Amino acid sequence: MKILITGATGKVGSRLAKRLADQGHHVRALVRDSSRAVALLGDQMELVEGDLLNPESLVLAVQGIAAVVHCAAFFRGATPEQTHAVNELGTLHLATAARDANVERFVFLSTGLTYGPNGGRLADEDDACNPVDAYPLSKLAAEKMLLGMEGVDIRILRLPFVYGDGDPHIEEAIPFMRGFPPSQRMAVCHHADVAQAVSRLLDAASPSHRIYNVVDDEAPEVAALFAAVGEPPPDGTSAERASAFSALLDGRRIREDLGFKPTFPKLEDAIKANALDRAWPE
Fold this sequence. Notes:
Elements: E1 2-6, H1 11-22, E2 26-31, H2 34-41, E3 46-49, E4 67-70, H3 80-100, E5 105-111, E6 122-123, H4 134-147, E7 153-159, E8 161-163, H5 169-177, E9 188-190, H6 191-203, E10 210-213, H7 222-228, H8 239-242, E11 248-249, H9 252-258, H10 267-272
């Protein structure tokens, strides 16, 4: 399959792009700076320069493409206005370009944070969403726009906290989560299983316009995440802020619909396989 992937220089996108290429797909990466992208991605995929906020720059990017995997997003370090512009308007520009170019499938990587705080209950894809921060609000708005779009097959994948493959995500999140309750559980998923989920969404003939959660079988305590990178437990001083991240994800739909089965059902499985620090072979 000829696939356009956005966000290919990001944490999720870079690892996903390489896995898709290793599976034999022709991967075209939409990047803003091709010289930086070559340094990160090597020369195993085609690069095309463009900007989500410049619709004209997307026309060439989607030509001859069978599927788009849209990973790009503005998250940390952005104002709410910047977040909505890139994550909502940019997604509209890309999806419109894909539809106009007769791209068959559009896979949108969203976030489980769209559910908002729910006291640690399992959230399934039919639950109401009540996010509290600009990032999940912008992702939810993009989801709603995509689900109302006709002329292209839309698949939405809501991600939890993603880890592994040498990604410093856990280490980088430590300062932010230092005040979380040690026993609060976090929905997580290894990069290998994000790639597996995306592959299944690309391969499945149906159904279109459907949302899927992807998640490990077990949600570890925040203290276990800290311990995985040699950090002492968090101190629990920011329990109210932590509640925005309290929703856990119900992963049954993608298992039942598409046969997904996590390579790493638990964080401890990835630790035992040394899959936190190195890429897991396909």
